[in-house]
Specification:
The protein is 42% helix and 17% strand. With 352 residues, the chain is of the alpha/beta class. It is globular, with a radius of gyration of 20 Å. The two termini are 27 Å apart. The structure holds nicotinamide-adenine-dinucleotide and thymidine-5'-diphosphate (TYD). The site of thymidine-5'-diphosphate has 12 residues, from helix 6 and strand 8.
């Protein structure tokens, strides 16, 4: 019998890669992609699989508890992979409440809907909550890494809202026996990334010959993972992770922001046929982000030893693939920057 799996936030960056992977790898599943289509949701990300017989799109808001209860009553979901979130730290600094609504209230609504629908029948169910390494706070000592046992210390409204949602997920395991699993991943990069985040913003601005805004001195460090490697880790953990457990996912790939921007400039100069050193002249140091976390770095040993997952791509290869994708998909970028992508849902789904 077909198993119904609900993936939330599937029109976003990481969610679209997870949806595609599940739709293609598991024809025995029917994937329901629930997404509110906020500014970050873009159905063009899923154009290649939107007609697949085991895929359905559902437009809806996880902040609406009644809507979720109805959806769970209508479909006997075997599992949930929860990615829907407000995800950008800078936006969380200007509008923290939006992060409380979606990331905290929305997650609790989803937990409640699953708990009610699965009451008395939790066997073979799974509630997978996708989280971030930012819940652990920041690192200073170069020898230190985030472990699954690292104490939570969120420092931005974004990471505070994700930490809160993680606590609720664990509380539902402990209190109601909801079969949950959580993963905390480092920074992702790759195709379909909204150009407000570092990597796609820099690629976009280099193409457009616009200033490249580097916060502070550019010395903050992030650990970068190719998005398809994250989607594969989610697949592995969804199917083989243990209930009530947490798995860290990371790229073993730390870069200072300024070094990453310089590398991107170098790759883009080659690809665009510009003289070496041209794009880096666009680098502009700007006022630092408030409360800017210094360094994130994941120790993903547990995932490797227990479930055999490791990153597959070297950074140079992943970054080149990413740059190539943006260069060959400039219409995607144009549609996102012009706002046209938001008309895609109406064109594809309204009146169906
Ligand atoms: P994104 O911002 O690209 O996409 C988020 C998606 O959620 C969008 O499609 C949006 O429309 C949808 N959404 C937002 N609010 C909603 C609501 N109220 N109801 C229904 N849908 C809603 O985010 P992303 O970068 O793909 O991140 C996905 C998940 O992975 C998030 O939970 C994030 O915290 C986590 N994560 C992201 C990274 C990263 O580097 N981007 C790293 C680790 C973990
Ligand atoms: P971002 O992509 O927003 O991810 P996060 O803050 O969740 O790690 O930012 C990555 C790093 O790049 C972070 O240290 C902030 C920095 N940054 C810039 O220097 N300039 C920018 O324009 C952006 C968006 C980020």
């Amino acid at each position: 019998m077909t198993k119904k799996i609900l993936i939330t936030g599937g029109a976003g960056f990481i969610g679209s890669h997870v949806v595609r992977r599940f739709v293609i790898q598991y024809p025995q599943y029917h994937i329901y992609n629930l997404d509110a289509l906020t500014y970050a949701g873009n159905l063009e990300n899923l154009r290649d699989i939107e007609e697949a017989p085991n895929y359905s799109f559902v437009k809806g808001d996880i902040v609406d508890a009644d809507f979720l209860d109805q959806l769970f009553a209508e479909h006997d979901f075997q599992g949930v992979v929860h990615l829907a979130a407000e995800s950008h730290v800078d936006r969380s600094i200007t509008d923290p409440l939006a992060f409380v609504m979606t990331n905290v209230i929305g997650t609790v609504n989803l937990l409640n809907a699953a708990r009610k629908a699965w009451k008395g029948n939790m066997k073979d169910r799974r509630f997978y909550h996708v989280s971030t390494d930012e819940v652990y706070g920041e690192l200073h000592d170069p020898g230190e890494f985030f472990l699954e046992s690292t104490k939570y210390d969120p420092r931005s409204p974004y990471s505070a809202s994700k930490a809160s949602s993680d606590h609720f997920v664990r509380a539902y395991y402990n209190t109601y026996g909801l079969p949950v699993v959580i993963s905390n991943c480092s920074n992702n990069y790759g195709p379909n990334h909204f150009p407000e985040k570092l990597v796609p913003l820099m690629i976009h601005n280099i193409i457009q010959n616009k200033p490249l805004p580097v916060y502070g001195k550019g010395e903050n460090i992030r650990d970068w993972l190719y998005v398809e490697d994250h989607a594969r880790a989610i697949d592995v953990i969804y199917h083989r992770g243990a209930n009530g457990e947490t798995y860290n996912i990371g790229g073993h790939n730390e870069w200072k922001n300024i070094d990453l921007v310089l590398l991107l400039c170098q790759i883009m100069d080659q690809k665009l046929g510009r003289a070496e050193g041209t794009s880096q002249q666009l680098i502009t140091y700007v006022t630092d982000r408030a409360g800017h976390d210094l360094r994130y770095a994941i120790d993903a040993t547990r995932l490797k030893e227990e479930l055999g997952w490791e990153p597959s791509l070297q950074f140079a290869e992943g970054l080149e693939k990413t740059v190539d994708w943006y260069l060959t998909n400039q219409t995607w970028l144009d549609n996102v920057t012009s706002g046209n992508y938001q008309k895609y849902y109406d064109a594809m789904y309204e009146g169906r």
